[in-house]
Prior knowledge:
Helix content is 57%, strand content 11%. The chain has 20 helices and 10 strands. The strands form 2 sheets. It has a 6-stranded parallel sheet.
Amino acid sequence: MMASTTSSTAVAGALFSASKPQGSAACPRVAAGRRRGSCVVRCDAGVEVQAQAAAKAASIAALEQFKISADRYMKERSSIAVIGLSIHTAPVEMREKLAVAEELWPRAVSELTNLNHIEEAAVLSTCNRMEIYVVALSWNRGVREVVDWMSKKSGIPASELREHLFMLRDSDATRHLFEVSAGLDSLVLGEGQILAQVKQVVRSGQNSGGLGKNIDRMFKDAITAGKRVRCETNISSGAVSVSSAAVELALMKLPRSDCLSARMLLIGAGKMGKLVIKHLMAKGCKKVVVVNRSIERVDAIREEMNDIEIVYRPLTEMYEAAADADVVFTSTSSESPLFMKEHAQVLPPISDAAGGVRLFIDISVPRNVSACVSDVGHARVYNVDDLKEVVEENKQDRLRKAMEAQTIISEELKRFEAWRDSLETVPTIKSLRSYADRIRASELDKCLQKIGEDALTKKMKRSIEQLSTGIVNKLLHGPLQHLRCDGTDSHTLGETLENMRALNRMFSLDTEKAIMEQKIKAKVEKTQN
């Protein structure tokens, strides 16, 4: 299924390699170094333009080949697919290489929808998962293109990536998203932050105009499912978030006698950092030092939480603050580690009363603390993958509630699939209307020619045209009424789809092939532009 093909990138690369010596030879030697340098730049620029043109040509050629063999794809409609990895399938070392910052989601969606067989796309990237949802013209080719894109972005070979990826199709992909939104696939069952992240995918798509009709509806229905599960099962009651699990883990690792008096440091005052402070306060901690780029966000948190002393220190004093801390929580969006082995080595030792070990609780992806910090004798590093120890302790009750949640998920899944099925009749309605209008226009033209245009006034011509339009509308009213369905009634939907197939056969509308050709044509035009 995942057999590789020659990509346009490979074609471009081959052309670049072949063109480079030729470009260098075409540039005459010049004594002055500056002129030689400008010549190389011009030659390289020319080669780059050639490479881009070749890549474009290869992409168009692939689409044209797909168009030729489009008949093979008539039996399957566009597939909804999810290709991704999560805390359940891949270690944090791999997830952080694939992580996409929220502000880059629109760019990633644009790149994905530019792939030959991808119509729509959305990216859900959090500390625990990186999932790509797409509508693909062809399941096999679409999945292959997405995996290749992920490989190129992360630098991880596709063969290695596949060992950790999961791929789900149509109803399985939709059910997975609904379960994710409900918190059923989270490390912490029922946690609420993931629902906010699913909502953010929709907001990001609306702001950039990147979400297509199917993906947009699927994510909105997933939000509905997530809300219903939390309201009707109380699965989030008593559930811990990643941030609260991090606090629990820190308190588990500290000596019981010193857990509340330990010196706490938080680096990063974003959403997850704020939750860390909230849960420290709930556990009885009286003071926390917060290192952040600016003081404004820290001041806002301080106004909300009056029962804990919050001390601000700027980012430039991060290592000094760490020297005075027993526990260091890190929650920033930094692309590179903030703490390496050499930083931990120069930090002063921790008192025996605090366990003699400085704890680094890193809930960031990409990670803020390098794993090699644990090689230092008086330091221990824990990341999001280590939170499982905390989560297992209070999982049983939420597992029971998760079973109840599946009933709600199934109801919402049925609604979404009925809506998607109802869309199938729209092309048939358009095709039937177009077919009837073509006949009407042709017969009207014949009639007017027989009568002779000079024999008719403008008013008479308009009356005859209105008559032909009225007859067609009345004849089509019944068939079109039996093609309209909102998908809420499964029995009515079944009848509607059967009516659609019957009309396609009776009038040889060949709707599916026309839709596929239209989609491919749009892809070719997009690539050419």
